[in-house]
Amino acid sequence: MHIQDSHWSGAVATEVGGSGRVSAAANSRSAPLRVDAQRNLEHVLRAAREVFGELGYGAPMEDVARRARVGVGTVYRRFPSKDVLVRRIAEEETSRLTEQARTALGQEEEPWSALSRFLRTSVASGAGRLLPPHVLRVGVADDSTVVDDAVREETRVPQQRLGLAGQPELRVVAPRPVPAAEQDDAGAGELLDVVGQLVDRARAAGELRADVTVADVLLVIATAAPSLPDAAQQAAASARLLDILLEGLRSRPV
Description:
Helices cover 55% and strands 4% of the residues. The protein contains eleven helices and two strands; from the N terminus they run H-H-H-H-H-H-H-H-E-E-H-H-H. It has a two-stranded antiparallel ribbon with strand order 1-2. The longest helix is centred in the middle third of the chain and has 26 residues, at 82-107.
């Protein structure tokens, strides 16, 4: 997956002015649109999901316009910068993943079934290819910093290190400070919380490896949905890869 943070950092500044007022571009999202304008918007969003999903967020706006069969000026009239479009797509895909996690949590009583259902649904939807960059950096931290139990519960990101006699030992490390522009971007905090509940339940039931983290689960979603030109081949490859990864996540009797 090819995701470039450089296309992400300016998104907030683009939509929100220095005074904290939401820009006209952001306001226009909720403004009523003419039928043709609404149709063009839907085409652009669909095309952006496809193009960014296939090529990453580094793909040019011209590719999005070409896939949507509209002029690039039409894209820019609705999204004044690429950052704004990237943010919109990531918000929608993160929201979709959050709802999929919440559905699995609420409808599956067995912890492993809930986690595996979430993974299968999310991989099949292809949303993992469009996750915001900072979500996949959860748990990246300086190994020398240990946090207390309150932060342990909040972050839900244990990191493994070797303890005495070379045995694995779990501790929680302070996550990388998140820049203000990335905080709560695209509902990432809510996604991490709900997926964290799935991970906690499966780990507590002894069905998930003790060293598996929320970041690992999101990485599975991001990597188990390869972009292939043939839809049937892509679905088969994703299902096969996910089966292998799920086996790797499960705990094994000692």
